[in-house]
Amino acid sequence: MFESLSDRLGSVFDRLTKQGALSEADVIAALREVRTALLEADVSLPVARDFIKRVQDKATGSAVTKSITPGQMVVKIVHDELIRVLAGDEPADALKIDNPPAAILMVGLQGSGKTTTTAKLAKRLKDRNGKRVLLASLDTNRPAAMEQLAILAGQVGVDSLPIVKGETAVQIARRAKTQAAMGGYDVLFLDTAGRLHIDEVLMDEVQAVRDIAQPRETLLVVDGLTGQDAVNVAAEFDGKVGISGVVLTRMDGDGRGGAALSMRAVTGKPIRFVGLGEKMDALETFEAERVAGRILGMGDIVALVERAQETFEAEQAERMARRFSKGLFNMNDLKGQLEQMQKMGGMQGLMGMLPGMGKMAKQAEDAGFDDRMLRRQVALINSMTKKERANPDLLAASRKKRIAAGAGLEVSELNRLLKQHKQMAEMMKKMGKGGGMKQAIKQMM
Ligand code: GDP
C-alpha cells in the first residue's frame, strides 16, 4: 500500500527536516513536489489541489517558518491534512449490525473482489464478534459465482443460503431474509450480481433488492488498483443506489493508492475496509490515522500489534501491547520481537511497521541486515543475564565483552543491538503516551 507515494514524500520531507531554517519559498517548493507525488499516485486533481492549498495556508505563516523545527511542523501539517482527507469529519464506525438479522448489501462491478470480501467480512464477524452469519448470492446470471460464495462460506465456517435454480434476485433476497430471521442469524450478507460496467439493468436490480432487504449497510467493493476509476464507480453507485461505505480491494498490490486519498473527498463516503490479499484474513479496517502514518513512513504500531495478535498467543500479545503502551520495552521484549519476526513475514514486512524503521529497510538490506543478523542478535540477548536483559543500562564494558564473547561475536555488534533497542524503546514510549501517531509527532516537535 502506498509504497511509491510514501517513498516520494519521504525524500521531500527528509530534505525539509534536515534544513534548519525554512523560507516560505522552501515550503512552497516542497509542497509543489508533494503535489506532483499525489498526482502520480493517481489522486484526482481537484483533491490534490485542495490538499496543497490547505497545507500551504497553514504552513507558510511565520509561526511555522520561525519555529525551531519548521520542517517537522510542515510534516505534521501534512499528516493532519492527510487524516482529514482520508477520514472526513466523522469517524467511519463499525458495521451497523444491531437488530438482528441485519442485512448487508454488497455491491460492485464484476471482478472487484465482491464475493471474496463478503466471505472475509463474514469470517471477521464470526471470529471477532461471535456473530452467526448467513451468506446469499444473488448472482443469477453466473451460477459459478453462486457456487463460489457457497464454497467460501464453507471455508470460513459460516452458512450459505441453499441455491435454488430459476429464482430472480428479488426472490432470493426474500427467501434469504426469511431464512435469516427463522434461523436466528445475526447478519445476512447479500452478494449482488456484478456487471462489467455500470448499466441500468444492474442498478434497477440492486434497487429492487435494496427495497426488499432494507439493508443496514450497503457496501461498495471497488478495485483499488483502478485508481480514479474506482472513485468514479463509487460516485455512480452512490448516486443510483446510495452506499454507506466503500471497501477498497487489492491494496496489497503496488497500486498507487490515489483511490484511497480521493474517495472521501469526491464521494463523501468513508472507506470502511481495505483488502490486502486473496486469503480470507487479508482484510483490515481503514483507520485514517494509521494510513496517514503509513503514507508518511512513520511506522504502524497498531498494525504491528494486530499482526502479532494473529501470530502470538492472544494473552502474550495483550501483555506486549500493555507493556508498550506504558513505554516498557526491555531486552526480553526485543528478543521476543526478533524471534517473532521470521514468523511474521520476515524482516522486510515487519520493518515497515516498526516506528522509524520504514525508511531504514532498504539501507538495512544493503548492509546485510537480514535473517542471519536476527539470529546473531538473539544469540547476544541469550548471552545476557536475566538482570541485564531487564535493565540494559547495566551493560558496562566488561559485561559487554563477556556477552559478545558468549555469543561468539564482536562488541561492536552488541553496541549496534543496544542502539537499536534504545531507539525502539524511545519510539514505543512516544507511541504509548496518550495513544498514537498524532501524539508522537507532537512530541517530536
Ligand atoms: P467478484 O467478481 O467481485 O465477486 O470478485 P471475486 O471475489 O471473485 O475476486 C476476483 C479475484 O480477486 C479473486 O481471484 C480474488 O482472490 C481476488 N481478490 C479479491 N480481493 C483481493 C485483494 O484484496 N487482494 C488481492 N491480491 N486479490 C484479491
UniProtKB/TrEMBL annotation:
Annotated binding of GTP, by residue: 108-115, 191-195, 249-252
SUPFAM superfamilies the UniProt entry points to: P-loop containing nucleoside triphosphate hydrolases, Signal peptide-binding domain
Pfam families tied to this protein: SRP54, SRP54_N, SRP_SPB
Major place of residence: membrane
Keyword Nucleotide-binding recorded: yes
UniProt membrane topology term: Peripheral membrane protein
Assembly and interaction partners: Part of the signal recognition particle protein translocation system, which is composed of SRP and FtsY. SRP is a ribonucleoprotein composed of Ffh and a 4.5S RNA molecule.
Protein name: Signal recognition particle protein
